[in-house]
Amino acid sequence: MKSKLHFLIFGCIIAGVCVGVLIGKIDNQPMRNGLLNILDIFGNTIFVGALKMIVAPLIFFSIISAITSLANTGELWSIGWKTLLFYFATTSIAVAIGLFFVLIIRPGDSQNSDEIRTHWHQRQQQIESEFGLKKEKIEQAKDLTPLNIVKHNLEKIIMNPFRSLTEGQSLGIIFFAILLGIALIVVGPVAEPVIPIIQGLNSAFMKITGWIMAGSPFFIFCLVASLVGSLGPGVFHTLFWYIITVLVGIAAHVIVLLFICRFVGKIPTLKFIKGIQEAWMIAFATRSSAATLPVTIECVQNKLNVSPKAAEFVLPLGATMNMDGTALYEGVAVIFIIQLFGGMPGAEITLTPPVTIVIFLTAVLASIGAAAIPNAGLITMVLVANAVGLSVDYIPIIFAVDAFLDMFRTSTNLLGDTVGAVIINRLENFNSQTNLD
Q1: DSSP assignment, residue 344?
Q2: For residue 192, what are the CA distances in angstroms to 69, 74, 203?
Q3: What is the pLDDT of residues 100-142, one digit of tens each?
Q4: Calpha distance 137→376 (Å, rounded)
Q5: Is 298 inside any structural domain?
Q6: 204 assigned to some structural domain
């Protein structure tokens, strides 16, 4: 049954799209909303909620388990700097790819651009009424600066560890887990009785993950049907070329990541895709690489033969800090908005090489710095817009398709995380018996 799970998940994604389209065509608004609410209960409330329930303790125990399995702190340092360097490099590549395609395709110069500009104020009010919560997040982020982000992240890192666990503050959990893991190594024999308990708890949380996954096809069907049914097909017409640009950029970056995995990680592409396909599809449906983390760790360890030393340290860091798809998306979005509204009040910006470089650097750095903040994608976009003097009042233009594109950028975030685990496993010579065919 488990070997066929990915087929069931894929089939349920397709079925969810079909059912979602049918629900979107229902004229009876109360009936349509009722069906969407039922689907949302099973998809978001139960399934995503169950995954998020175990993420915080899993991050905590998996990182400590990984660190205490290392020979010394020197080995931890070796894994740590290579992980951060790899994630920074792939995020930079992602943003560069996104900027290349948005400058080549120029989605902001499409045939719909004149109509959008002419009726923008009317459309802006409609969008903001439909997506009030997202607009509120943007308003809150208007005055944020890079220094504010650094301060905010430090507050989330240096805090009561029990509060971090309770509130699901990933950076705080990771920091304390690393600190405690190092202390257990340094203490030595006195701490030895504690380590098997930590490893046992880590295994228990992985077992809970397996139980949750048993019903994943049905829950994913509900997630996809709810999303498609609430979006409706009309939203894709106006922003068609913007959507195409983002998807082409993401596809190109996926090819780059698979290339790196094959020629640096020494794992054939087909084997790698088969190994992570369950986690990849769940990230696609849930739109949360953090919620998918338990499944990601299980897939990478059991199907790609990545050592727990690498998987249980690299993947939690990646789910928190590595946002390839999101960074690519933010760079594309800001340039698209400048192309679309350039010359209008608050968008008097010319896309010169220096402006493009500022967008590149800000998107790369902000995607890492804002990772600990709720709705991090919106915060990142505000930071990038502020860096080039673009009014955030134009950002709502992309709200209608944001959830749809979020599925692709989240699954790309996860792909970057898993490739990172494979590369670090290879560079550190863990599990040297990894099969190459």
Answers
A1: S
A2: 11, 19, 18
A3: 999 999 998 876 677 777 767 766 676 666 666 666 766 666 6
A4: 10
A5: yes
A6: yes
Measured in Å, how far apart are the chain's first and last C-alpha atoms?
24
Alpha carbon distances (Å) from 306 to 239, 276, 296, 312: 41, 12, 11, 10
Interhelix angle 240-263/73-105, rounded to 10 degrees, is 140
| Domain harbouring 146, CATH code | 1.10.3860.10
170: tokens are 């990933």
For the record, the structure tokens of 78 come out as 């070796």
- In whole angstroms, give the CA distance from residue 290 to residue 67: 20
The contacts of residue 340 (CB under 8 Å, 6+ apart) are: 108, 113, 116, 117, 394, 397
Give the burial class of 352: count Cβ atoms within 10 A of its Cβ; 0-12 exposed, 13-18 middle, 19 or more buried.
exposed
CA 3 to chain centre: 26
149-160 as b/e, with b when 16 or more CB fall inside 10 Å? beebbeebbebe
- Give the tokens for residue 103: 């400058």
Residue 15 lies in a domain: yes
Let me know if residue 432 belongs to a domain: no
**Which of 432, 425, 331, 366 is CA-nearest to residue 66?**
425
Contact (Cβ atoms closer than 8 angstroms) between residue 284 and residue 387: no
* Number of structural domains found in the chain: 1
Rounded to whole angstroms, how far apart are CA atoms 397 and 43?
Answer: 27
Work out the average pLDDT over 47-71: 89
Q: Judge contact between 247 and 408, C-beta under 8 A.
A: yes
- pLDDT band at 1, cuts 50/70/90? very low
Per-residue tokens: 400: 């209608």
Judged against a pLDDT cut of 50, whether residue 9 lies above it is answered with yes
DSSP annotation of 391 reads -
Residues 278-335 pLDDT 10s: 999 999 988 888 889 999 999 999 999 999 999 999 999 998 889 999 899 999 999 9
C-beta separation of 137 from 375 below 8 A = yes
Structural domain boundaries, residue 387: 2-427
Residue (of 321, 319, 320, 351) closest to 334 by Cα position: 351
